[in-house]
């Protein structure tokens, strides 16, 4: 993976949530660098908002994936959206959602498809994929 | 039941509050006291989005609490009171002296603050305010989530390591 790989989204959450998810994506796809990460650990709300903006601005990405709908990263992302309505927020992110988004947002040649596609629609599809893969099974009483 | 926790948390409503405390306490309402949030419909909607549908959120400016606190103290449901800063809590206790305990849940890094714990950074003025509240007989402890040990104000200010 080249260092200048296209960053397609920011992943933010509690503890090492973002780092962990992205390391899983990296192991599966070899393309972990496609995501910028952020942990809320030790950060005040204004710092989280600033860090999100910094990652969006430096990467050109317009999508933020977070963990809890009520988490501080989600709240900060909603504040970012107030000033930047073009930013898309996906809460409850999981590995499947990130991979779906990665493969739909980036062409095989690492060329951003941005501008040619509707990023919000891609994020919707990624969220749908994430929901679809969240399945409980087993536990039949013996 | 009434108000089970009076918390200072600069993130206000977020995961630790809604899930971390909300689940074990069986929270049914949150009283969010903040002058700025109380004056902004947009801010209120933002925080409402963060709570499950079975938890009510009430927004108040500090001055409203002089009369409103009694209503919440008598509420039969389990509730949590939330402010975003030490200064707001100090002003709140002035108008709502029925508050006898304070939970420091999260005061994060900012200009002029010194780190005391992983999630507690305080300015000298904030330290003075907390000591003054304790001197008035309030029980003041730091505890981010229920599974950690509450840390006394003396230990917080001494910069004791996290539990």
In summary, what is this structure?
Helix content of chain A is 46%, strand content 12%.
Query: Main sheet of chain B, how many strands, which sense, barrel?
Result: 7 strands, mixed
Structural class of chain A: alpha/beta
CATH class of chain A: Alpha Beta
CATH class of chain B: Alpha Beta
Measured by DSSP, the beta-strand proportion of chain A falls in 5-15%
Helix content of chain A: 40-55%
- The tally of helices of chain A reads 5
Shape of chain A: globular
- CATH-defined fold name of chain B: Fructose Permease
For the residues shown, what is the average pLDDT of chain B?
94
Amino- and carboxy-terminal Cα gap of chain A = 48 Å
Stretches of chain B where pLDDT is under 50 for at least 5 consecutive residues are none
Give the biggest beta sheet of chain A: 4 strands, parallel
Return the string of H and E elements of chain A. Answer: EHEHEHEHH
Oligomer: heterodimer
Please tell me the total number of domains of chain A: 1
Write out key terms for the chains shown.
heterodimer; A: 142 residues; alpha/beta; Rossmann fold; 46% helix; B: 163 residues; Fructose Permease; 7-stranded mixed sheet; two-stranded antiparallel ribbon; 37% helix; globular
């Amino acid at each position: 993976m080249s260092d200048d790989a296209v960053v397609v989204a920011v992943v933010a959450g509690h503890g090492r949530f973002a780092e962990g998810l992205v390391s899983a994506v990296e192991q599966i796809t070899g393309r972990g660098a496609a995501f910028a990460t952020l942990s809320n650990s030790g950060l005040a709300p204004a710092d989280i908002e600033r860090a999100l903006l910094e990652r969006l601005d430096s990467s050109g990405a317009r999508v933020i994936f977070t963990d809890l709908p009520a988490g501080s990263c989600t709240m900060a992302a909603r504040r970012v959206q107030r000033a930047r309505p073009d930013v898309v927020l996906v809460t409850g992110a999981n590995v499947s959602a990130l991979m779906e988004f990665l493969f739909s947002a980036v062409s095989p040649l690492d060329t951003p498809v941005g501008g040619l596609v509707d990023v919000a629609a891609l994020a919707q599809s990624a969220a749908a994929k994430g929901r679809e893969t969240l399945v409980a099974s087993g536990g039949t009483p013996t | 039941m009434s108000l089970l926790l009076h918390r200072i948390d600069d993130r206000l409503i977020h995961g630790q509050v809604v899930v971390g405390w909300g689940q074990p306490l069986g929270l049914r309402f949150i009283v969010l006291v903040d002058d700025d949030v109380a004056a902004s419909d947009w801010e209120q909607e933002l925080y409402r989005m963060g709570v499950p549908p079975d938890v009510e959120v009430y927004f108040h400016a500090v001055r409203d609490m002089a009369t409103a606190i009694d209503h919440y103290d008598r509420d039969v449901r389990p509730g949590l009171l939330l402010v975003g800063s030490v200064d707001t809590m100090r002003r709140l206790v002035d108008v709502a002296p029925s508050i006898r305990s304070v939970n420091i849940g999260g005061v994060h890094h900012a200009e002029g603050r010194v780190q005391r714990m992983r999630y507690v950074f305080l300015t000298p003025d904030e330290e003075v305010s907390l000591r003054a509240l304790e001197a008035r007989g309030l029980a003041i402890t730091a505890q981010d989530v229920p599974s950690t040990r509450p840390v006394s104000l003396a230990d917080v200010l001494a910069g004791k390591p996290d539990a």
